[in-house]
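User: Last request for today: this protein with NAP, please.
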Amino acid sequence: MHEMKYRRLGSSGVRVSEICLGSWLTYGNATEDSAAESCIDRAYELGINFFDTANVYARGKSEEVVGRALKKYPRDSYVLATKVFFQMTDGPMPNNRGLSRKHIIEQCEASLKRLGVDYIDLYQCHRYDSETPLEETLRALDDLVTQGKVLYVGVSEWSAPQIAEAVRLQEKLNLDRLVSNQPSYSILNRYIERAVVPISSHYGIGQIVYSPLAQGILTGKYKPGQPLPADSRAADPKQNMFLNGGNLDQKVLEKVQKLHPIAEREGLSLAQLALAWCLRQENVSSVIIGASKPSQVHDNAGAAGHKLSEESIKEIDDVMA
Ligand SMILES: NC(=O)c1ccc[n+]([C@@H]2O[C@H](COP(=O)([O-])OP(=O)(O)OC[C@H]3O[C@@H](n4cnc5c(N)ncnc54)[C@H](OP(=O)(O)O)[C@@H]3O)[C@@H](O)[C@H]2O)c1
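Assistant: Here's the final one, the structure of the complex with NAP:
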């Protein structure tokens, strides 16, 4: 039986499970509500205490499903993360998106209602807003912290210079500091290693990385030259718009199959290997997985605490080169 491991969220005091359960495209959307709740329950049983959602996922429905499922657990037993930035309504409403004080405060209230909680543990700016002064955004976030509606603030897919500028302003204005950034990171997408990770480590900002399985590609279930598995994200037109409409790169699929012997030697499934690979980075506080079935949560949770050998890390580089 595996044991969940926990890491500090950046240099903050709060501890999050190495595996976080997310809800993009799945809960409130492609996954039935009952299956969503089963996944969340399985995660909780396995020691996952960290759950990620966003106001924009299924335009609020994802937050509702996650909030309802977590309602049965003590509020102090889990860390709940959500986000603000993307457009929440159709039509020409000028203030229905972005990181203005107005939109942040209004959306935080709306998220609290949808989630059914009194406070959000981690409130994240889903993207950078170049049309709002950064100081306005950071002051609005700090006010939410002072009001007790938000405990920690983070960002998602901010560049190294944007993160550095935010920290500089927060120090200058004595505002609550960023604790995390949420970028994409996996064996197939390593861009953060160049600038985002070094600057974040310097400032005590942890990465909570998304799509660590490249949306399922790194589980090895998509076999080169074979039809897509019927119940997979790539085969589902409701979910495959960020997987090139299900038209996967055969060369990538071939490389992924070459990871099997490395996983076997480590005693891991391919999914676990891909997650353990992300967790080899000290600056990664947690990997955010998606799951359409409880069995996937179980498989993925098994990556926690596994330290890959230097030999395996090198071999993964060689296979992917
Ligand atoms: N901040 C951002 O901009 C941003 C962007 C994207 C995601 N995120 C966050 O990160 C979370 C994870 O993203 P993601 O869903 O792309 O992550 P992922 O873990 O790379 O992919 C998840 C999908 O892969 C399949 N899968 C997962 N585990 C599996 C296993 N063990 N065996 C076989 N298939 C498995 C499932 O899809 P099927 O069963 O349907 O094939 C699952 O929904 C999101 O839910 C969200 O919270 C954030």
